[in-house]
Structures are given as C-alpha cells and as structure tokens.
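ARCHIVE CARD
Drawer: 12
Card no.: 0347
Subject: one protein chain, sequence and derived structure
Cross-reference: see card 0346
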Amino acid sequence: MTSPRIPRRPVVTAAAALLSSAALPRTAAAAGTAAAPGVSIHVSPRGSDRAPGTSARPLLTLQAAQERARVAARTEAGPVKVVVHSGTYHLKKTLTFGVEDSGTAGAPVSYEAAPGETVVLSGGRLLRPTWQEYRGGIMVADIGTGLDFDGLFLNGERQTLARYPSYDPKAQVLGGTAADAISPARVATWRNPATGLVRALHQGEWGGNSYKITGVNEDGTPQLEWVGDNNRGSGMHRTHRMVENVFEELDTPGEWFYDKDAGQLYFYPPEGTDLASARIETAELNELIHVEGEGPGKPVAHLAFSGFTFTQTHRTLFNTPYEKLQLGDWAIARTGAVYLRNTEYITVEGSLFDQLGGNAVFMDGYNRRNTVARNEFSHSGASDVAIVGRPDAVREPSTWDAFRKTIDDTTPGPQSENYPREITVSDNHMHDNGQFEKQTSNVHISMSSRITVKGNTMHDGPRACVNINDGTWGGHLIEDNSIFNAVKETSDHGPFNSWGRDRFWPLDADDATKKRYAKLDVIETIVIRHNRIRHHSAWDIDLDDGSSNYLIEDNLLLNGGVKLREGFYRTVRNNIFVNGGAHFHVWYAESSDVIETNVFVTGEPYSLIGVDMAKSRPVIDKNLFWADGKPVRDISDSWRAQGLDVNSVVADPEFSGSNPFTDPKNLDYTVTDDSPALALGFRNVPMDNFGTPGTPTPPPLTWQAAAPIDPYEALAEPLWGAPVTMVYSEEVKSSTGLTDYDGLVLRTVPGDSYAYQQGLRTNDVIQEINGTKVTDRNSFWRPYTKLPAGSEIKLTLWRNQAAATLTVHKPTGVETVNNTAGTAFTGTWGLSAGRGLGDLADDVHYTTGNGASASLTFHGTGIEVLGEKYSDQGNVEIFVDATSQGVVDTTSPTRQVQQVIFSVEGLTAGEHTVQLVKLSGKYATLDGFRIRG
C-alpha cells in the first residue's frame, strides 16, 4: 500500500565500522558557544570515525559515537549529548544500549538530531538496481539472493507487496478483501503458493488473523500456518481476507515482488516514476533502537532520544512469535522500532515514527518513569506505543486456553517487578496505526500500573485508539486527549476500550464473591477524564467484560456513549453525551455503579441488556436529558419507581454555543450560567485543551435515526419460564461476546424457573439443539416441538464467551409456546408486538387474507390453539393432521385475548400437525398453543 511522504532528505549510507574512542570534545569548545557543563559528540554522514567528534570534525557512525558517549558518561560530570546531523543512517544492525549507556539525574545521556536538521534512522538498505523491462510495465532487477525484507520504499513512500485483491485506498478493510482470495481456483494459478501470506479479519471482526501458506492440500486449498495474532482463536473471516507476496498477483502499479531464491526484484512502478533517479529502499530490521538493562535492580537509566525520524522496519507480523496477553483479546509481538526493557527515566521525544512495519515504541516488563512525548506517529504497521508487563508479575493469570475457576492467592497486586509503571505518553499526534496488524492501538496497556496518557491527538486506526487489555494494576490516567475515527476496520469496540478479565471474572462464584475479589488486580482507580471522543457507532468508551474501578468524568462524548459490562465500582459523572447514551450490559448484583450529573443530548439515553436494576442497585440520578424538544425515552414513571433518575430532569441545557441538532460541527458544549444542569450539580467541562495543538479535530456529528429493531427478532418469547430472543442487534451480540447473529439468547433466567432448574443461565445463547444448528427461533422451535415430552435434549451453548454443552429434559404435562414458536405461515401475516392487551408474550400474529393459514407440528396427545375474539374477527377452520375439525366462530362484542379457540385431546402419542385457516371477518389472530405431552 502507498502511504504519505517522509520528508525529503539527503541520502548517505553510514559505514558500520566501530573504531576506538579519541579525545572527547567539551561542549563549549566543540560548539563554539558559551561555556556549559558536559560533553557534546557530533555525528555526520560526512564525518570520520577517526575525527575528534566536534561539530567541525564529526564522527561518521552512531556506533562510534556511542562508544565515546560511554566513556564520557563515566568520566565527565555533566550531561553527555550525541548530536546527529542531517542524513539517512541505514542501520546494518540494531543500535543496542545497555547499563553502560546510562546517565544520571544530574548528568543524563542524550542522542538528538541537530536543531533544524532532518535525521533519519532507517531499518532498510539503499538499493542501486539496474532495471530491465519484464513485461506489461513490470520492471525487474537483480539485487542478490537471500535478502530478508518485506517492505519496499520508492522515494520515501511505502509500496504494495503484490496482492489480491489489488490495494484500494477507498476500501474500508485491509485495503480491499475478497472471499475467493485463497480459493482452489485462484491457488491453482500460482506457481509457488508457499511464498503467499494471508491477512484477514478474525471471524468475529475482533482484530486480525494472519497466516503463512506452507503448501497446497489435495483439494486445492492452501495449507495455512496461523501466526497467532489474536487471543480469541484463528477463525478467519469468510469474506474479509486477502493474499499477498504471490508473484502472479503482481498486476497493479505500485506493487512489487522479490524472488528470494533468484535474487530478482520485480516492481510495477506508479505512472510517472523515473526509476533512473528514484530512491529505492528496503525494510529489514525489526528494531532500530534496543535498550535493555540487566534487570529491575540494574536498569538502563536517564537516556534520551529526540528529533529523529524512525522508519523502514520489517513487518513483525510474520517473523516474530506472538504471545497471548491475559484474558484480553490481544496477542502481541514483543518488539518495536524503539524497544525498552528494564529501564528508568528513558525519554523518546520530538521525533517522527513513519511507516514502520510493526510497533513503534514497545516497553516490555520493568520500565519506570519513562516518557514518550511530542512525537508524531504515522502509519505504523502495528501499535504506536505498547506498554506491556510480563506474565510472571501476575498472580494466578488466566488465559483463554486455561481459565482459572478458583482463586488460591488472594494477595492484591503484582508478585514481581516485571511490569511498567509511572509511564507518561503525552502531547503526541498518533494516527493511521495498524496498517498490517488489526488488533492494535495508538496506546496499548497491559499488566502495568499508573500509566498516564495525556494531551494526545489520536485518530484513524482499525481498532481502539487507547486499549487497556486487563485491570492489572490500575492507577492509569487518560486525560485531555482528542480521539476520533477509531474502529475503522473491526467491530464491537470503542475508541477507548478496556477489559477487566482479571482473577475475579472467570470464577465459578456468586456475584458477592466476585465483588469481594474485584480489586485484587485493579488495585487503583483508572481515571478517564476530560477527553473529547467521537465515534461512528454505539459507544465512545467501551468498558467490556469485568472492567472495574473506573472513574469517567468531564468527557465530551460525541456520537457515542459509555458501555458498562460486567464489573464493579464504575462512576460516570459530569460527562456530556451528544447523540449517544449509557449502555448497561450484563450487570452483576450490587454493582456499586454510579451514573450522575451527566448531560445527555439524545432521545435515547439508556440501553439495557441483561440488567436487573433491582439486583444491581446502581445510583442513577441528577442527570439532564434533552432531545431538542422531542420525547426522551426511558425517563418514565416506571423507571423512577425503581429509584432511578428521581431528581433528574428533561430540559434544555442551554448551551452557550450553537444548537448541536442544527450545527453538527459544533464542538463547544459550554452551558450558560442559567442552565438547569448546574442546579443538578453539573460543572462546565472546559472545551479547550483537547489533544495536541495544530492537529486535526473530529468530523461532524451524524444525527441519523438508529437502525430500527425488527420486532420479530427482538420479541421475548417464553421458554421454560425464561424469556428468549434472537440476536437482534449489535448490542445484544456484544453483550454475549458472539461472533455472529446466530442463536437464541436467554435474556434473564429467573431462579424459580424450569430453565434455571435445568441448568440454563442468564445470557446463555442456544447454538445447537441435538446437533442441529440454531440460527433463528424457527430453527430451534421446529425440532423442539417435535420432541416427546420428557425427552433428553442436548444443547450447545455459548456461555461466558466460550462454547459449552448442557443436557436438559423437555418438561412433561402441558407446555405453552408462543405463536412465534416454529409456526409455519402461508399467505400474508403480520406480527403485532407490544400491544399491552394481555397477549401471551404481548404479541399476536394476524392476517386479513381469507385462505391464509398457520400450522404447527408438535409431539403430543392434545393441543389448544390460542387466539383473540372480537367484533372484527370472523370464522376460522381448524385441521388436525389434514382433517377438518370444523369451523370456529371467533367473534365477540368485547375483545377477549388468550382465548382457547380450539382444543383436542386423546390423540395418539406422536407427531401431529394443527392448522388454522381464515375464512371470513376482517382479521384472524393467533396467540400461541398449549401442547399436552
């Protein structure tokens, strides 16, 4: 794929020789400035490693400068500066720094670009190819065999590895995808499929899944080796997939292919390219700078890097092992262009990270009080800044492969020093990450403590801009950031995302026990304060699975809202929600959640899925709701009767700026001194100091009506005393952790129900019945109603985001099922849901067409057909096993619902079919059946 420029610069390849140190120039003498303590060592592509290292006579290589800096750090009292002058330094190997490179608080060591000069550290090499015409505009050059690169740059711009489908800058996912990318027919056209690489989305669109092609199976499909780039399994999306590094797919300008065995580089240059003068570079090194101490007790300290352009590193997607991180969704390659481990007081600032193959900055294990500030991160292959502890710091860690169902160690906090803490990521412009890996973010935090992410502008990435993989160990501050255009290629996520699947979450325990253990790992509150976040979907801040101990305040949330799922101790206060609301998904009992003094600029402030307010008992009050004069849903007498929003009001918040309903570009939501929000305790949120000055701002709001919910799919019908629905929305899908919309969801399972007695639980999803896949309600009910009463049923469930099996028994006696329970309809029928008239499941099917019919096949000895009687009804004819049972008059001067309009007993035990046919009247109505086993 192509990518924006890196600045034009002189191209000079530095020699790699390491020479012994010479005299060290003092700053005053070297720079010709006023006397100052410390030493400056100068490096230039036009220098010599035999030179003294002054500004007039600089060294040639960074390695030589490093040797002299080490001597100076030992022998000089003041700071040591390595000043690097303009040019491109193609590194033949990673610059490695150890304890001997450390400075001190009073005499730090720094490597910095000379003021006003462009200094590029490249992980590739400058090629000097002699091009020849191959065919059809494709050029070829012999560059030597055995090179290891998977990035090619033309005049500083990344080119596209030969791929199918061809790169499309307008395509939302992976630059273009195709269902037939690795079909047998396509594979058959490739001379050497084993060069191929497959990039795809995870089957649930939870990031990416990538593969190496190792051969071809007998059926013509490729043999795939998964690289492990997702913590939730290797299921490949059926359509969002592409293949690259296949010679036969080299067919579009900008594409290239390197035949490693033959040593030939093939390139289809973009139109107008002058290859004779073009600069061609590779991407070969995974890391440009590697800083590693000997351990937490002997770190590298007080070392800084500033003013550089870091570019052209190898993609780590296919050449570095992945590690699954706790119970978050992430797997990660522990590497980056700048890699830090066992360090303290390391600073990376004022630099450009441009078009890297993998992560830009990676802090691994013990790192303390490091700073990443005032940089631009552009088009990273993976994440911009990843801050990740080591598993040995975690007490009783769980993984998706090995859940811990019990806790033996109840000691709070970490058990070793191998984790980052007190790290600051501030004032950076971070954009267009995840060019190759799709489980990525601008800032990723895992197994860390007290990480500050402040004043950054973050936008345009495939997944969250800020991701907290687990609750260990909290204390983070996310503040003053501007975040937008996130989750562009994946789903079920927010611009800020977190998981809290810590020790308490996988337990086989009641909610009270989970609450007692919830702060074992997230021992300090995570604060999300004063950020401007804009999303294109349901939630700006996504506190997923178990995320606990959060304070969310003073945020401007545009076009989305906040999701709280399965956790404890979340406070959401003094935020402004614009065209978004609070999504409450699957709450625990006694959650200790607080939602107060917020301003909701929306007609739909709340979305509840799997929540029993009487059990969770949150504090929800003193909020203001405004929908530009239109009704506000949920703020009803029944809602307030539960003690919720008792003191809240529906009123105009009186913004001092323009009306957001008519001015979607408005970014000023200051309320006036007369605002009723202030009387509720709301405090004005400062509308400045979001993000980094001079960087882009969020796009306008999109005031569009929410997608209508299909009443048939959303209908809650009875199953053994528990309401079940189809997976009717993205919110329901997210609340269950499903990868698709198949199955029936048990919304709640009362403790006194037959469903509970049989082992079903709230939020279970029925995916199979006796081996038959359940996609919708009919695919469940039609085989179910044909089973004898009391028979054994094997269910496959989706429970707690994992497959489970359960053997249950169909009840004996009389069972009532709804009109939606597998009924076959002919003719034109409608569904009337939410009638409020006392119907079974509050719904009926109805028809106005004479001759229209409804039939149910069941196993039993009798059945009652339930319908409605009213003055607008007429005659219906009933058939049992295709034999007429006569005509039934369903008229009545008054409306009568849940009426038995036909019954029969004494049938031979077995399978039968009952059918209702409309003969006359305006309507015929069907409400359900009572089946006698």
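Annotation on reverse: The mean pLDDT is 94. The radius of gyration is 32 Å.
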